[in-house]
Amino acid sequence: MRDGVRMALVLLIIGAVCGGLLAGVNAWTGPIIETRAQQEFMETLRRFFPDVDRIDEESVDGEGYFVCYDSAGNLLGVVAQAKASGYGDGPIQYNLAVDNAGNIVGIRISSHTETPGIGNFIETEEWQQQIVGLSIDDPIAVGQDIDTHSGATVTLRGITGSIRRVIDVIGAEFLGFEGETMGLDIAAVSDGTYTGTGSDVTVEVTVSGGQITEIVVLEHDYTPDYFDKAEGATIARIRDAQSIEVDAVSGATVSSLGIIEAVFNALK
Amino acid sequence: MTTLTQEFSKGIIKQNPVFVQLLGMCPILAVTITATNGFGMGIASMFVLLSSNIVVSFIRNVVPPRVRIPAYILVIATFVTITDLVLNAFLPSLHAALGIFIPLIVVNCMIMGRAEGFARKNTLGRSVIDALGMGIGFTLALTILGIVRELLGAGSIFGANIMGSSFEPMALFASPPGAFIALGILLAIFNYFYRKFGVQ
Q1: Domain count for chain A
Q2: Are A10 and B67 in contact (CB < 8 Å)?
Q3: Is residue A228 included in any domain, yes or no?
Q4: Do A137 and A248 share a structural domain?
Q5: Where are the alpha helices (DSSP H) in chain A?
Q6: What is the pLDDT of residues B77-126, one digit of tens each?
Q7: Partners of A135 in the beta sheet?
Q8: CB atoms A11 and B70 under 8 Å
């Protein structure tokens, strides 16, 4: 018994001393490591926006958006830290930089698990040059302004769809593009039932006497959790406002924007 | 009783942890792609070995024998974590290059072996000498292996181009199979000289 107590006590003391020592070293090195990680991230941002002086970090649907300002406080643009699903098991993680006019100024793939020799073309300068320069008003769709890449359809669709989604979020959340790109006069729409498709969602809109009376989602391809959150509230907001210039449901921005886009496409 | 000089030099030649005892092969083969990595790994391991030998020797009369292994592991893990944090803070590029192999120093059998086989039975002074000898022997071996692999696999040493632009690097030596082959050849050369000069 004596022995047991002594063993426990010795281990306890050694453990406590080691723990204390580590706490001390961590307190000393922690801030240094933290500062360096931030500097490295600022370097990445500087490659896109050389004048960046201050960043605001925002989170939309679990993805990070870094809003960049210059020293005078002018909005330079937004760098997104986004995920796309491709062919590999893991996500394609990438940064997309969009300037304050809605043009893509840079893309950087930070990690991916696409098949080497097939899906990893997304890392090439050649492919990335195709993306840089596109604007929020461009289709950004495979076969239109993005060349098809035979043998790597899944990768290409995944990253292209994701870029479209991210630039829409940036436009709506940070650059205030929503209203300008989607002007719609509901009073001018004649009575009837219309069907429209947005990115990954199809809706049926009933108009009567210049008013939207009913919006029904026919099918969608979003993550159910987010979509369920977006569906009721977004439809109610559109009906109440009789306009598609409504706020997205926070925490479900992408699904909300999809519904808004689908209603716009139905009635335009 | 062995003299202090013998205690020191045994780790470098007679009982070199890599070329004679073949201890800690996993990090050795994995990180010696370049001479710099091999040297860095050697120094990091030496720091952990020296610190743990000092502490283990210091507490050798206090720790009950039945819990000595967990006690040593606590001590070693603490110094490895310190090494990891300090490298991350001050030498980030080396930290990134060595990656997971820094935390894995905890299970490097050379370090446990010296704690268990030497430091717990010897005085503080001798344990320090032993750790320095073994640590330098380990660092030298890793650096030599790193030099050979970098020279053949990339045509440079410590990042400086040696072989000129016409040299076609043998990518094999930068990969794990090449590490085995290079180590095997080095072992053969060392064994030849050890036998020739009668080192036993």
Answers
A1: 2
A2: yes
A3: yes
A4: no
A5: 2-48, 125-131, 153-173, 178-181, 224-241, 253-267
A6: 999 999 999 999 998 888 888 888 888 888 888 899 899 889 989 999 99
A7: A103
A8: yes
